[in-house]
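WARN retry 2 of 3 for item q-0093 after timeout on previous attempt; input resubmitted unchanged.
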Amino acid sequence: MEFDQLGLSADLLRAVRDAGYNQPTPIQQKAIPVVFMGRDILGCAQTGTGKTASFTLPMLDILTEGTAKARMPRALILEPTRELAAQVADNFDKYGKFHSLSKVVLIGGRGFTDQERLLERGVDVLVATPGRLLDLFERGKILLNDTRYLVIDEADRMLDMGFIPDVEKIVSLMPRSRQTLLFSATMPTEIRRLADAFLNQPREITVSPPSTAAVTVNHRLSVVEPKQKSKALQTLIQQEEIERAIIFCNRKKDISSLTRTLKKNGIDAGEMHGDMPQPRREAVLEDFRAGEIRLLIASDVAARGIDVREISHVFNYDVPHNPEDYIHRIGRTGRAGSAGYAFTLATPEDDKAVDLINQMLGKNIDLIELPGFTKTSLDSSNHQSSHDEKQLSRHKHDRTRTKKNQSNSPSRSRKHSSSAADMPKKVHRTPSKHGKKTRKTNPKSAPSADQTPVAAKETKAPVGMGDHLPAFLARDIPKPEKILAKKMKGK
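OK item q-0093 returned
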């Protein structure tokens, strides 16, 4: 099938040919006619299959008719990362160069002033990340009343990054009479739920089984000790013929540390993660595209936002926690039918994560041994045995500590000293007549109630004041007539 069979305008076909494309990909063949029909779409296709063009191409022709109003975009495209938003904007520039449509990119790391000024003029296409869009909405700088086309791109990545509540709020601000296109590389249960809530009788389009890797990618796995990972990576870099490569780490702090280590050993590399300022991220990505940087060390935030051709290798410095992230990472290589290589460095403790990846791939990743490194294997039984030994040792320690605490506890002491001879003797302080403390007495040697003097019986503690009264409350207070008689006698 050719592009001219999809109903695209002559100007759009000319732009597609200038971009070097002649035949549409499977997702484009199935999605573009449905978009022209005005139907909602639930699309599932792995990264690198041309999802972006499947909604940008028809949208350009659809938006040709009509004009935009101030602060009211006609079409909204939501992306999980800044890099993906910039990639979609580049597609609009590339395919829409013969159209006069306007677009604005709303992403973090850039000032509000320029974005607000462009929105005031009116914009046809708004490409945004959820957080920045809601910021401008709360400032009253944007309205979604007239937005008729909504694209939720990389929905599963939105889910992973915690953006779904923001997406739900944005959708609630839009008119019900809209066309919604939801695309995702994988289709977990939560995405199905969102599709039921956001889409109206959608056409489901799946061009490849969910969570599968391209057949052009060669997978390799090397198991090393944690302290050997850096040297193992350097060995792989030196022995492989690399055009461009992305090295993925699980933690941001490891990215900077690994970058410094590689540079120290004469291997030039750039880094990119979410904590970097946006201008710096864009500069590093541009150097990577231009070939000035051959190795790019990145976090999973960049896994779907890097659209760079001729990436020959992907290195997983850390095994991803989620097996679906493995699919997204290696989707950066083996694109457009070219061969790609994915190397993963694992430690013995990564056995369960590797098992999940093998299950998703439907096969075991080939193991390779690196020369000069200790032979190590993913022996889950040994790992479990070591884990059980640690748990048993910890359990014994807890039991010893518990026994020690019980032996020192008051309840334990009382239990073992319940006889009358072992009980501590209570000490009572009997208030005297003039408030002075008397000697200490033992309850056993104190007189019984029948032997108590009458004067002592008259001094009783009031109800609610406790068993004993302070001395100043127990003093005998003379009657008024006695006080008067005493004063007269003194005169």
